[in-house]
Amino acid sequence: MAVYLDNSATTKPCPESTEAVLKMLNENYGNPSSLHKIGIDAAKAVMKSRQSIANLMGCERDEIFFTSGGTEANNLAVFGAVNANRRIGNRIVTTAIEHESVKQSVDELEKQGFEVIRLMPDRHGNIDPAELSEAINEKTILVSMMYINNEVGSVLPVEKIKGFVKRAGAPALIHTDCVQAFGKIDVKPKKLGADLVTVTAHKIHGPKGCGALYIRRGARIVPRSFGGEQEKRIRPGTEASPLIAGFGAAVDALPDLKRQNKEISELNAYATDKLKKINGIILNSAPNASPYILNIYIPTFMRSQTILQELSANYGIYVSNGSACAKGRRSHVLTAMKLSDEITDKSIRISFSRYNTKEEIDILCDALSDLIKKHPQK
Fold this sequence. Notes:
With about 375 residues, this protein is α/β, with parallel strands linked by helices. Helices cover about 40% and strands about 15% of the residues.
């Protein structure tokens, strides 16, 4: 029995999503920009998905712009906001635990001469709102902070950003990466006070290769690519209509989020209780973290990459040693949390979806107990 617990990296597409993708590929295959019936039908499918996402986010349909995924949406938001406002300020406020697509974007902007303030987390990946408030000044043109951290599940104080920006008299646009929050908890840009919000399909049982950026009506960003009228020139190019249709279908197939969150919280509590009974395991995720993500230290002589390979090859269990985009490198998130090298190098991420069961948790815990016995610390 395969046990898939790497849902923060990607999820298995739901039947509704795959059906929508196949229909667009096999039947409704027109270019959404073509003016004949097949093209218009494809455009209607894109519009339907745009509306579904807007409905879930409580925003207008024309505030949703499709991209190739979360990474492109984050790049578009960060570079687009900074380049639109570079004449009125030069400070960027972010955190040291952002996804690589934000982290590397602000690293590049820092090389170009922008001042970058990276807020440091505590032992569990939490960001202090007081430090956030202090970092924002009248020269701040962008605040980019994720809603839920993708490695440890910490929930960041994004709802407080708008108040701090107003208090400082800053011209900043507010961007939040909601890739790990969208479809799991309520993500309403207006409630968050966000100008720019990143979401993606493949974390909610939709297809890979399709994401979206919410851009508040009236907020100005500069595009990163050119060559067409699609997406109001913000992200030109022929829309990936099959993937977009799959995205919309995955959104429509979401269960009631409060009920889903309750079920995942119960599953997380069950897993936490069982893991605590395994001698030497340490929980890196805080009790108030997102229940969808559980980061733990494994007491063995093996490093995390070897641990996950052992679990995969010998037990049929699939987890992660951090962000899939990091390609096995040491986690910058756990490093920023100032965890010891021992813990940082031997921690894995377990991440849940609505398809996981307690039986799978039992299998995982039995495997971890067996692995620790076979490969103890030296």
